[in-house]
UniProtKB/TrEMBL annotation:
This is 5-dehydro-2-deoxygluconokinase. The keyword ATP-binding applies. Signal peptide: none annotated. The gene is iolC. Its EC number is 2.7.1.92. Residues 5-302 form the Carbohydrate kinase PfkB domain. Pfam families: PfkB.
Length: 310
């Protein structure tokens, strides 16, 4: 693979999706397997749009770890920086399509997920400093040693190129809200772009009001804030101006993965040098397409599908 344009850092897992929708997990009889995890899905989504993408993460020494590497390569994403934690298992995630728009998740990541054991020796330091776009996540600082490693990556990069923070808040990964806010907030001073929904903004900057959240994000030196408002669209804010981009209505099959499709399109738009509104429109369309499908990584759209929706 040629030199990377984007490196995402963080969560990976094997998603098991019910093949029966609208019923409790106890009544599901069959599941479909898919590659998952926020950082991983964003890389896949970017690769689907023609970007040279890689993931910095870790798996266990098991069959699911092998599956992760093979699936990444199959999607055109470099698995070169997928390490192995010898004493841990590759995470598995079950979802319950009840309700389909916001499915509950059941994470198997105990005693700790391999992707949270990324240490200093696992990091390709020159790559994380020089890659055109580095994508980090809130989950990535929920535990040590990944927290310290991700902090060092950001400090080492010094806001060069595009440095994107996906606020990515999952309450089950944190001891309390205060710890999450402190750790995610620290990263805001070291990135150029922030992406998150209302809940994630409230964790990061203390308010779920989109305009106030955007003000607080921009005050930290960020050049672009994308605040996802669900059915109300996306607030796009820069230090100079702000816009609301309308959503693309679809019949929701599974709400999971839509945000990661959005993220992959943000990557593509930033690397393409698009204006913020064009980025958000493209990302909105990508998210809507994935919401109308079952899986995450396997459901990521290509450019033709997105342009057709637009």
């Amino acid at each position: 693979m040629t030199s990377l344009e984007v490196l995402t850092v963080g969560r990976v897992g094997v998603d098991l999706y019910p093949e029966q929708s609208g019923v409790p997990l106890a009544q599901v009889s069959t599941f479909a397997k898919s590659l998952g995890g926020t950082a991983t899905n964003v890389a896949v989504a970017a690769a689907r749009l023609g970007r040279r993408a890689g993931v910095l993460t870790k798996v266990g020494p098991d069959g699911f770890g092998t599956y992760v590497r093979e699936a990444l390569e199959g999607f055109g994403v470099s698995s070169k920086y997928v390490g192995t934690s010898p004493d841990l298992l590759t995470p598995v995630v079950f979802c319950e399509l009840n309700p389909p728009a916001d499915p509950p998740l059941l994470f198997y990541r105990s005693p700790i997920a391999p992707d949270l054991t990324i240490g200093e020796d696992d990091v390709p330091w020159s790559l994380t400093r020089e890659v055109p776009l580095l994508w980090v996540t809130g989950t990535g600082v929920s535990a040590e040693p990944a927290r310290a490693s991700q902090r060092m990556m950001l400090a080492n990069r010094a806001r060069s190129g595009h440095t994107v923070l996906d606020l990515d808040y999952r309450p089950m990964f944190w001891p309390d809200v205060e710890t999450a806010r402190a750790e995610i907030s620290w990263m805001l001073d070291h990135v150029t772009v922030a992406v998150g929904n209302r809940t994630e903004c409230e964790i990061a900057v203390g308010t779920s009001d989109p305009d106030e959240a955007a003000d607080r994000l921009l005050a930290r030196g960020i050049s672009l804030a994308l605040v996802k408002k669900g059915a109300e669209g996306v607030l796009v804010a820069t230090p100079e101006d702000r816009w609301t981009v309308e959503p693309n209505p679809v019949e929701v099959v599974c709400g999971l993965g839509a945000g990661d499709a959005f993220g992959g399109s943000v990557v593509h738009g930033l690397l393409s040098g698009w204006d913020p509104v064009k980025i958000a429109r493209y990302a909105n369309a990508a998210g809507a397409i994935v919401a109308s499908r079952l899986a995450c990584a396997d459901a990521m759209p290509d450019q033709e599908e997105i342009e057709e929706m637009l």
